[in-house]
Design a protein that fits this description.
This protein is an all-alpha fold. The chain is 77% helix and 0% strand.
Length: 204
C-alpha cells in the first residue's frame, strides 16, 4: 500500500501543480504560437513589400508613362527600404537633365539619408557637387568634412574639395586638392582631373 499511496500522492501533486501553473503554461504556449504566426505574417509582408517596390523601381528606371508616379510612390510609401534611395537617385538624375537644381538637391538629400551605406555615400558626394554648383558652399563644406570616407572615395572627395576651393577663389588650396585627387586616383582615368589642375596654372 505504501507504493500505491506514493503514486497517488504523486498524481495529486501533479494535479495541484497543474491547477497552480496550468493557466501560465497555456498562456505561454498561446503566446509562442501567436509570436510565430506574427513573425510569419511579418516576413510575408516584407516579401510582398519587396516585390511591389521592385516592380515600382523597374518603372522608375524605365520610359514608362508611370515613371514619375512610381518614383514618388517609392519615396513616400517605401522610405524605409533601399528602393526609396534608388528612386531618389533616379529623380535627381531626371531633375539634373532638366536643369532643375532645386529638385535634384532635394532628391539627393533623401538618398543621402539611406541606411544603405554605399548608396548614401554616393548620393552624398553627388549632393556636395550639386551644392557647390548651386553656390551653397557652406553646406557643401560641412558635408564634405562630415565623415572620413574609405580610400576608394579619396580621389573623388579631394576633387570635390578642389571644386569647393575654386568656387571660394582659394586657388592655391584648389591646386593642392586636385594634386591629391590625381595622386589617389590610381588606375582610374584622370585626364579630366589633370585638365582641372592645369587650368589653374602653377601658381606663384
Amino acid at each position: 500500500m505504501t507504493d500505491l499511496k506514493t503514486d497517488e500522492e504523486k498524481a495529486e501533486e501533479l494535479k495541484q501543480w497543474w491547477r497552480d501553473n496550468g493557466t501560465s503554461v497555456l498562456a505561454g504556449v498561446a503566446l509562442a504560437i501567436a509570436a510565430t504566426f506574427a513573425w510569419q505574417q511579418w516576413k510575408s509582408y516584407q516579401i510582398d513589400q519587396a516585390k511591389t517596390a521592385s516592380g515600382l523601381l523597374a518603372q522608375a528606371n524605365s520610359d514608362s508613362p508611370n515613371k514619375a508616379a512610381a518614383i514618388e510612390t517609392l519615396i513616400k510609401d517605401y522610405s524605409s527600404t533601399p528602393y526609396a534611395a534608388f528612386a531618389a537617385l533616379s529623380k535627381a538624375k531626371e531633375a539634373e537633365s532638366k536643369k532643375d537644381t532645386k529638385s535634384s538637391i532635394e532628391a539627393l538629400r533623401i538618398a543621402a539619408n539611406s541606411k544603405q551605406t554605399n548608396v548614401a555615400r554616393i548620393a552624398k558626394l553627388r549632393l556636395i557637387r550639386s551644392l557647390i554648383a548651386d553656390g551653397q558652399l557652406d553646406e557643401a563644406n560641412t558635408l564634405l568634412n562630415e565623415e572620413a570616407l574609405p580610400s576608394a572615395y579619396t580621389s573623388l572627395q579631394e576633387e570635390l574639395k578642389g571644386d569647393l576651393y575654386l568656387a571660394k577663389k582659394e586657388i592655391d588650396k584648389a591646386r593642392q586638392a586636385y594634386d591629391r585627387a590625381i595622386l589617389s586616383a590610381g588606375q582610374d582615368p584622370i585626364e579630366y582631373l589633370k585638365m582641372k589642375r592645369n587650368n589653374l596654372g602653377e601658381g606663384a
